[in-house]
Amino acid sequence: MESDNLRCADALVKILELNGVKFLFGHPGEQILPFYDAMRESKIKHILMRHEQGAAHAADGYARASGSIGVCAATGGPGALNLIMGVATAYKDSVPLIVITGDVPRDMKGKKGFQDIDIGAVFKPITLKSFDIKNPQEGILTLKKAIETLTYNQKGPIHLNFPKDVLESYVDRSILESLECENEEYKTKIDFKKLHKAIKLLKNSEKPLILAGAGTVWSKASDSLTKFAMKNEIPVVTTYPARGVVSEESSIALGMIGLRGTEAANYAGKNCDVLIALGCKFSERTLLGIGNCKIIHINIDKSVLTGDVKIQGDVKEFLDRIMDVKFKKSENWHSIINKLSTKHHINTNYPNVPIKPQRAIKEILDASGDSIVVNDAGTHTTWVTLLISVKTPSSLLFSGGFGPMGYGIPGAIGAALANPNKRVVAVVGDGDFQMTSQELATINELALPIIICIINNNSLRIIKQWQEMQYGESYQVELENPDFIKLSDAYHVLASRVDSPGEVFNAVQKALTLNIPYLIEVLVDEKEEIPLPEVLE
After folding, report:
1. Is the pTM of the predicted complex or chain greater than 0.90?
2. What is the tens place of the pLDDT at every residue in 268-320?
3. Closest CA to 293 of 277, 264, 273, 276
4. CA distance linking residue 282 with residue 233, whole number of Å
5. In three state form, how does the secondary structure of 459-487 look?
6. How far apart (Å, rounded) are the C-alpha atoms in residues 466 and 472?
7. Nearest CA-CA partner of 523 in 428, 457, 427, 431
8. Where are the alpha helices (DSSP H) in 93-176?
């Protein structure tokens, strides 16, 4: 006979199950043992990452690639603090994560004992909210509310810290009633008065422009945006995380705006009279490409709203509400923009050996086809940014807001689990790789067909370039790397090394046909620098 009482840890796992969580990325430890005991019988697949940073990055990659909430877990003290890099990354890019940590029992808190630390104080500035749970009822209801928030409202990480004895405590089983989050009423409603103001501005516009940010992706508004923009012949520019929300091969797509933006995108941003900003934050990099114009800003996060018409709401709902409104079309506006380039013209036709990094990246991208590309931080990031054409949302993953080294491999794990029928190619630097190389063990264990391309220039090349430019010489940026092929072999992942034009394309294409984990080390010209962005006037 089933007991009337239920352990808090079991209730938490049940809530996650009821709300469609398929994967949980984590690493067990003493203070979170009850939660892992509950996970043992769960339908949720636990992904054992080799470092907690990797757990948070993998949950982040899963969320970005799936459009769902990512979930990660770690024990108290060092385990929780190891999550910090990944949680901060998700916070800066507004990626929805549920972050669960264990902690010392309540009667041990504040006594400076083993693994006792104020975890909540550390997580507070890098989460939407950090909860220090006091009892099982509070924890269960807080988890439900966190899922509702991330499903219907603001995006970002929400942290729940559970003392071990709270996880072990029992509650009445009736608390499980209505734990599935189905309440659409929780969703923020658009203000009709402000909607009317937005429509009036657009109807009077001669040079309208749409700026799509990450909120357009989370709203799953790609089809609505494309339909609205095509119907009204309004050009579209994007921030980095929204690349592909309208195919960059489309006639209405001008590319990314701001720093590293295209000629067409930045001209349109500087000269439009009304900017419809959908789900973006207006970072300093984006603002570089925007001139003096009227701004209609739509975002689910009220705290970032700016401009002349501020609408808190869902991007897709906004677009669907104005879909049938007729706006005038400006042929003159389009004729000017159509003369400008929507691509970056980068010469990659170098015959050099070792291969130039820009040619190596071009060959990787050409061979990757419709694969999901996960980009890490470094010189290669610039070449990927300038050379890739993104055709679908969430097919280029990169932490543009924080740019941590080491995101690529664990991010690719999350992306591969989110899209088992898609190929995933991670492009990382030699410095990046050594931040999270231990996750090769996870890739091998799960037999994930991820292709890892290490761009090896034996240095932290972008930092070296900045040092030499600003101070005349470099310091502590040369890397004496291990043998990456032997290291990969130790993790039972097949690997090869290439250094010549043509070899990179062939290696990536061959690896993709094998449908197994594969590492490709690409030896590139160590002296090649990246083109620095021009300051926009």
Report:
1. yes
2. 999 999 999 999 999 999 999 999 999 999 999 999 999 999 999 999 999 99
3. 273
4. 24
5. ECHHHHHHHHHHHCCCCCCECCCCCHHHH
6. 9
7. 457
8. 119-123, 136-152, 164-168
